[in-house]
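Help wanted!
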Amino acid sequence: MNPAQPLSGAAVPALLERARALVAPALRAAVGRLAPPMNTVAAYHFGWIDAEGRPSDSDSGKAVRPALALLSAEAAGAAPETGIPGAVAVELVHNFSLLHDDLMDGDEQRRHRDTVWKVHGAAQAILVGDALFALANEVILEDGTTEAARAARRLAAASRKLVDGQAQDIAFEHRERVSVAECLEMEGNKTGALLACAASIGAVLGGADERLADTLELFGHHLGLAFQAVDDLLGIWGDPRSTGKLTWSDLRQRKKSLPVVAALTAQGPAAERLTALMTADAKKSQQEFDDFDEAEFAVRAALIEEAGGREWTAAEARRQYDAAVAALHGVAMPDAVRERLLALGDFVVVRQK
Amino acid sequence: MNPAQPLSGAAVPALLERARALVAPALRAAVGRLAPPMNTVAAYHFGWIDAEGRPSDSDSGKAVRPALALLSAEAAGAAPETGIPGAVAVELVHNFSLLHDDLMDGDEQRRHRDTVWKVHGAAQAILVGDALFALANEVILEDGTTEAARAARRLAAASRKLVDGQAQDIAFEHRERVSVAECLEMEGNKTGALLACAASIGAVLGGADERLADTLELFGHHLGLAFQAVDDLLGIWGDPRSTGKLTWSDLRQRKKSLPVVAALTAQGPAAERLTALMTADAKKSQQEFDDFDEAEFAVRAALIEEAGGREWTAAEARRQYDAAVAALHGVAMPDAVRERLLALGDFVVVRQK
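Answered by r_m:
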């Protein structure tokens, strides 16, 4: 497609394709600035080359964040291109966090490929993550405009929340009791903040007033929580062939994700049995725990479901989606843009089906 | 001392003390925003608490960068306090890099204390480093002024160079040949860029024109290279009681620092013997290399000295210092401020004596 052509309708594939077409060249140019070997390691992470350095065309994400950034520029009445530096910066921050999180969590696979620390070692995963984060700040401030500075402030705040969220996520793994409110706060930081930034940064670059920017941020925040609730469901019940992760992935990592926390804080015999099992699990060494067979995780997943954790999380995804939609209707923007933002939001949540 | 009192003369201890008095409260307030346990881990890193969480008053650096930031505000005719957000942001970026570098380099000690990864684990060292970096961007942009945005751009560029420099430093450890020019480029990135930023960020916040800001940046860049040359000398010949590191520290890590590179690229029998030894060293496993006794490192250090690496590096420190001084004389600023910047520069280089 020709990215300069105006989009007709609200077809999500076209929105994502436009985002990829407009943002990928700018993203590649930014990453190309890094000192070797970081440029190569980053290119591997993004799926542009394989582990041997040969050109590759791996799936490097769905471009939901870039699509949001471009649409948010249009929400402010600006051209979608106005959102490009914002889209690039948000992608860089997102991928900085993936590089570091995969290392901290010991995840060996992402998007069906070995993770960076697995292929290039821990030092490169740390360094390239740092470099992408630094690059994000450079890219967003490059224009030198007042709008760029406002966008940079929102990006900085979102980045810090992102790190706070990862810190909370790790801390929760070692805690026996985590409340649903704490889990939602963690997910709001870890996933909500950057999606909120993606959904507003283009508007800020396009000169939006604070009210429009804040409303789009709120839309993105709720959308992020809806997305994360779905992700939490997939983290337990997702098909490894489509998630690219191991079965019962989040259970293997003892993640206190929403279904787990909702089940543990529920009443009844299933919740009690689950609590007893997980209290015992917490005392096991990582090796003992890693040696569990499939059936052990299946038992825990069944108890989470029986205690209502799966159903509650699916309902929570819907509630957050509804809150996102409600936010979007609270502010003026071109109807066609609102329609596309809603279609994209729907796409994010519909993953669960 | 009362930090609000004007300084008389150019006494370096008073300059450093003023910087600590003005910057420490703002730095502590910024770090206090981090989500637990990152606030505690960061407080340990800065030496405000010990490993058990008890209040501590460890040496947390000499405050050269904060002192430069405050003086640079005065160079632009602004109050020293104008430089505080810049000083805090630079300190945060510097400490982000220390946390990550110590982990990547496997350094177990810093400032005579166990490093963060050693006490709190690798994940916390990564996370808290990320958090300090994010916080730096937040702090510098907080004011929302045009000056803050200009300062943030310079900070972003310096941060990226810092990461580039660390990447080059690590890459050089595995390379047989590194030229003096490459080593200087690496050190310019790793040390020069952030000192250059410290020396100019206060001026930018104080509304300096580009010429003054660029000149102060050049001053800081050369000062950083002088500082690093001295640090490279201390990394081989420094007294462990004052460096807080092991003897022959940089040799143990196979660092291609300036004295090593200068010696390896020199002519004569000492350079040839050193090259032969180091080529064989490069083929050794880390374990074999770690098992070297003191005498093995002493032989290498003696050959580096005999080949002229020590003398060349000391002369390079002086050359860079002279270039810093020359830069400072190329632009108008209050005489008293120039005098203090020169005194601080002298202090940085005089460490070698």
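OP: Thanks! One thing I noticed: The first strand of chain B starts at residue 109 and ends at 110.
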